[in-house]
Design brief:
- The chain is of the alpha+beta class.
- It is built from nine helices and 16 strands.
- The chain has a six-stranded mixed sheet with strand order 1-2-3-4-5-6, with no helix packed on it. Strands 7, 8, 9, 10 and 11 form a five-stranded antiparallel sheet that branches. Strands 14-15-16 form a three-stranded mixed sheet, with helices on one face.
- Helix 1 links the parallel strand 2 and strand 3.
- It starts with a strand and ends in a 5-residue tail after the last helix.
Length: 396
């Protein structure tokens, strides 16, 4: 009942089932199982489509054609598409949205309405056949979204979609994200769609989402970034793939190997399913808040002088009363900016060159203290070896 459309199409003497849905419906379709009658076509649209999700579905239906359709309501919906016929290689990450259908003109422009070069993200504008006249009794919104087309015939208009796309070398367009899903965290502009794609590429993740949420108030420092912008934290959401269990810390560590530190979520919330709106799109407003920034385990006091030093440093930095040996830096409210500050303070305390990636890969007090002790021992052994080499008499 949630599927948008299903129809029988007759052609060449045989019937083919055409099923239209959103990418968020793929897990449901996979759970239903069964083959599409005839060759079968699955038309997906409404949200970004990731190759990992299609690949799982197509393993059971190798003869089906998958169509990634793009088009806003203001352009009478479908205005471009990208087809994956049987046997076609399914790309990792975002599936292209393809090329314009007949009668459609597409523009990829910057904020000054100038065309952007190949490979550079720009906002997508749609012109041509099927474009709406505007919004009923909303002249201001119509004027904002429907603008004159400077590249078309006189008097023609184009629709500002709010979608960011980039032109690939093969001539297909690739969806990057929404202009209203661009966020600025710690001075870096982040596309939530890119973070979601990296999360979804994890072999144990079936579906993923990302949000920028206000940073917990317990931290030290101001509530804004100093330029009037609120301090935000990046939060990821992940649905386990069938037969897998997810660990937020492990997923963050895996993302840290492929993404810049500022794009790694400070928390990954594991959920049974992503909430959907009535038309099958992701309902971001219904995503749960991350758990309160408290230790997920029973408190264990630091057991060594190194653990005590690290725990005291973290507690002061995070603005909490105490930090236990098994507490996770990011689950207690840390992020990439605070991990950099932690690294600088630990460099002063221990005389070691650590990196934020060290905190990401060993996010608990006990694990990081062990790494620090290993490096201190290695440094002492290196120094002892150099001293022994200097004391050794020259060979004959």
């Amino acid at each position: 009942a949630d599927l948008e459309d299903a129809a029988q199409v007759t052609g060449g003497g045989r019937e083919t089932l055409v099923l239209k849905a959103t990418p968020a419906h793929l897990p449901l379709l996979s759970a239903l199982g069964g083959q599409l009658p005839g060759a079968g076509q699955l038309v997906l649209g409404g949200e970004q489509l990731l190759g990992e999700a299609v690949r799982r579905w197509r393993q059971e239906r190798p003869d089906a054609t998958v169509v990634n359709e793009y088009g806003p309501t203001e352009a009478t919906v479908g205005c471009m598409e990208y087809r994956l016929p049987p046997g076609a290689e399914i790309p990792a990450g975002p599936v292209p949205i393809g090329r314009a259908r007949a009668g459609i003109r597409l523009r990829v422009l910057d904020t000054s309405l100038r065309p952007v070069p190949e490979g550079v993200a720009g906002e997508l504008y749609v012109a041509g056949t099927g474009l709406a006249r505007g919004y009923v009794r909303r002249p201001a919104l119509t004027a904002e979204r429907f603008t004159a087309d400077p590249y078309g015939p006189p008097g023609t208009r184009m629709y500002r979609t709010g979608d960011l796309v980039r032109l690939r070398p093969d001539g297909d367009l690739e969806f990057v994200g929404r202009t209203d899903h661009q966020v600025k965290i710690r001075g870096h502009r982040i596309e939530l769609g890119e973070v979601e794609a990296a999360l979804a590429a994890h072999p144990s993740v079936a579906e993923a989402a990302a949000l920028a949420l206000p940073a917990p108030p317990a931290r030290q420092g101001p509530a804004d970034t100093g330029d009037g912008e609120p301090r935000l934290r990046l939060v990821g959401y992940a649905v386990p793939a069938a037969g897998h269990r997810l660990d937020g810390a492990g997923i963050r560590a895996a993302l840290g190997a492929q993404l810049p530190a500022y794009m790694v979520p400070s928390a990954v919330v594991v959920v049974d399913a992503l909430p959907l709106t009535g038309n099958g799109k992701l309902d971001r407003a219904a995503l749960p808040q991350p758990p309160a920034q408290e230790s997920g385990e029973e408190y264990t006091a630091p057991r060594t002088p190194t653990e005590e030093a690290v725990a005291d440093l973290w507690a002061a930095l995070l603005g909490v009363e105490r930090v236990g040996a098994h507490d996770d830096f990011f689950e207690r409210g840390g992020d990439s900016l605070l991990s950099l500050q932690a690294v600088l303070r630990m460099k002063v305390a221990f005389g070691l060159d650590l990196s934020p990636r060290d905190v990401l890969s060993r996010p608990t007090v006990a694990a990081l203290a062990q790494l620090i002790e290993e490096r201190i021992i290695a440094e002492l052994e290196r120094a002892a070896a150099e001293e022994a080499g200097q004391d050794r008499p020259p060979s004959a």
